[in-house]
Amino acid sequence: MFLPDELTIWMLGQWSGLSVSALTLENWIQVMGSKAQQALETQLEAQGRGIVLSILQTIRSIKERVTSNSLI
User: Fold this and answer.
1) Are 49 and 28 a contacting pair, CB within 8 Å?
2) What is the pTM of this model?
């Protein structure tokens, strides 16, 4: 959701009683955006590792079946 800085500052003041400058708000937005980006990248990496792990487990399972069938 996007709100103009002036409206955001006004709403923050109305809801919390806090008064912040436009620069403070912009800095906070940049920091939180960076944190959100890092969290997303971490989640995507973990998901990717999970997919790779799942593929490796499937390959091992297939190899085990092939090996056990070859011995019969």
Assistant:
1) no
2) 0.60
